[in-house]
Every structure is written in structure tokens, then in C-alpha cells.
Amino acid sequence: MTTNRIAFQGEPGAYSHEACRKARPDMEPLPCRTFEDVIEAVRSHDADLAMLPVENSTYGRVADIHHLLPESGLHIVDEAFVRVHISLLAVPGTRLEEVREAMSHTVLLGQCRGFLRRHGIHPVTGADTAGSAKDVAQRGIASLAALAAPLAGEIYGLDRLADKIEDRQNNTTRFLIMSCDPDFSRRSERMLTSFVFRVRNIPAALYKAMGGFATNGVNMTKLESYMVDGVFTATQFYADIEGHPEDANVRLAMDELSYFTSSLNVLGVYPADPLRETQRQGEPN
User: Fold this and answer.
1) Which residues carry out catalysis?
2) What angle do CA 281, 83, 43 make, to 5 degrees?
3) Fewest C-beta in 10 Å: which of 96, 133, 221, 281?
4) In terms of Cα–Cα distance, which of 192, 183, 184 is closest to 272?
């Protein structure tokens, strides 16, 4: 049984909500309080898919996500790149010069410091982006604005006093779309495979494990490490590579990797978002 719902973390109007509308416009977005709630919504079949942010081009990786993915029991079936356009939102009738404070998630506040400084607006930390827009709408104070997606202004009836005020015009967030069931059947010109692994306790294990990707011509687009269970000696690695596990060169590289690892878990195989190639070529988006 399907629900035709896709779960995301945050209030309606969040960037994750925008990602849902962009990547799965035919599905009903389901807001959830935490990332854990998003995962549980899919596991309990309250939603078919989960939309989870993993990294931002300005801020870096999203905290906790890499810890949650391996234990979630879900599988990556797609990725979605969403340009983070930030708008200054205020109660109807407000003029820009009336705004003294702007509320948003601390991450978003850090992405438009230049605009805030130029206009003498003091940043105020809120719980999240869409939640800040909702709060501003409820308070109805002209001097307090919110920094959020234009979608949040539309939902909460706020005026957009300024658009695209982010400091970096290529500001982009990468999301992963996850499902209870894996899908290895699809093929496109550019496929990605994501996996986590732990290396064996032998000298130069990581160096040797990575060697198979170099010798077999497999491009690794991401390799990140993080501690497991708060123990400095227990390190797990998250990796993205180009290609499908059934490709001959990928199969050989993964076989070599498995020899030097104590655990290896493929999280998903999925097509690359077209925006990935656009960004690689340095084209505007």
C-alpha cells in the first residue's frame, strides 16, 4: 500500500519542503519535527519517501545525518540539488527601512551576513527557517522580519522585501531521497553509488582500500569520516562514487575495498541530479 506522501523535517515552507515540491511534485509533503521522525514516518509506512538534507555548498555537511543514514534501514533512491534562495519576509505593508531584526536558523543567518550588515539588521536565532517565518507572521511586528524561502512567505502571508540576498549565488543544498526498498534497476548516463564502511585494524588500511578505485578508474566524489558511538578509535567512512555496482570497474574496486574493511554497507544506487554536472562545469544555475 502506498501513501503518495514524502516526509521532510521542518515546518511547511522549509527548504526541505521546497525540495519535495521540486523533486516529487506529484506527492503530498508530510512535515515532521525531527530527522528521526522523518525516517520513522517511512519505516512505519506513513510516508513512501523521506527527503533528507546532507550537505550545503556554503555551510558543509548537515550534522547527525551521516550517523542516522546507516542505522535507518532506508535506501537512497535519488538525490536532489536545491538552490537556496533567501528572502527577507515581513508582515504585509512593512518597508525595508523599518526592519531592525531578522530571525532564522543560525545556518541561514550565516549565509547572508553581507545583506544584514549593509542594512543594519540584527540577526536573531530562530528554531528553523520556516518556523521563523511562521513566528514573524504570528507576532505581526514590522521591525521583525524572517529569513526563509519565498515559499514560506507564500504560506504564511508575508511580504517579500528582498529576494536572493544570500552572500554566495551558488548556494546549494544537496538532499537524498530515501525509501524502504532499494532500486538497483535504473540506468542513466551518470549513476552514483553511496556506501559506508569501516577499515580493518591493519597498517595503511584506508590507503590500500582506496587504491582499488584509483587503479580501476572509479571517480570518488565524496569521502568523509566520523566517529562511531563517541569513540575516537571507531571511525566510519561515508563515500559517494560514480558508477553502478554492476559496472565491471566498480565491481572490482568494491571487491578490493571489501578485503580491507570490517564492514561495508551500500546505502543506495541512483541517478546523479543534472545540477551536479552544471556545477562541475561552473555554469550559473
Assistant:
1) 173, 175
2) 110
3) 281
4) 192
Closest CA to 49 of 81, 3, 15: 3
Average pLDDT over residues 6-31: 96
Among residues 115, 53, 114, the alpha carbon closest in space to that of 84 is found at: 53
Asked whether residue 80 carries a pLDDT value surpassing 90, the answer given is yes
Q: Are 195 and 182 in contact (CB under 8 A)?
A: no
Specify the residue for cell string 566498480: 250
| Residue matched to cell numbers 511547511 | 12
Please count the residues of the chain.
285
**Alpha carbons 137 and 146: distance in angstroms, whole number:** 9
The sign of the CA dihedral 52, 58, 60, 63 is: negative
The contacts of residue 122 (CB under 8 Å, 6+ apart) are 100, 101, 102, 116
Q: Is residue 98 a contact partner of residue 146, using CB atoms and an 8 Å limit? A: no
Radius of gyration of the chain (CA): 21
**DSSP codes, 176-219:** EEEESS-------SSEEEEEEEEE-SSTTHHHHHHHHHHHTTPP
Strand order in the sheet with 122-125: 122-125, 101-104, 144-148, 87-90, 159-162
Query: How many CB atoms lie under 10 A from the CB of residue 109?
Result: 20
What is the sign, positive or negative, of the torsion defined by CA atoms of 100, 106, 107, 113?
Answer: positive
Instruction: Report whether pLDDT(283) > 60.
Output: no
CA-based nearest residue to 272, from 145, 211, 157, 187: 187
Burial class (CB in 10 A: 0-12, 13-18, 19+), 201: exposed
Residue 282 has pLDDT above 60, yes or no: no
| Identity of the amino acid at 75 | H
> What pLDDT does 73 receive?
93
